[in-house]
Amino acid sequence: MNSKFTSVADLRNAITSKIDPVYAAKMLQPIPDMPTVKDRKRYLVEKSRDKIVLDIGCTGPISKLIKQFAKKYYGIDKTSAENIEAVELDHRPDLMPKYEDVEVIICAETLEHLSNPGYFLLALKDKYPGKTIYITVPNAGSYQVTDDCEVINKEHVCWYSYSTIKSLLTRYDFNIIESRWYNGPEYKAEGLIMVCNG
Q: Structural domain of residue 89, as residue ranges?
């Protein structure tokens, strides 16, 4: 940041004074002050503790811990296993099962894998209206290129920033309860946590 700017607001004002105000309002999105979670894994496990949990995209090490501390556990992923239902979330999210007793839904690092996340969100809202959902996604602000190499999971098809994940969720009428950074300093943190319900 240029030394003459003492805040993001100063920088924003300087930019907007030089471009069309309508375009500036469309392009410059404020980011609220949000707390940072130092350990995403611990945070999600604590939110699942002693709850009946639906874990979507549940093949990683976090899911093993969630299963261990949940009162009851359901999982959805591409392949089936014990307590895990196979569902093709990218093409047929409407086929995800409906478990009547679910209290909390964890959807960790899943949306960035989906070609049509809106279709998935519609199905989630239809099957689990009003349920508390913890959505985590990598933060676009953490994107980096090292020499001639992008540092990115090759299975991802998009990046989310605070503004884009908020827009996606509100477009499908999800109520955002809170938002947080995780694993790293604000704005450049590894990811975002959005707590919402449909």
A: 37-197
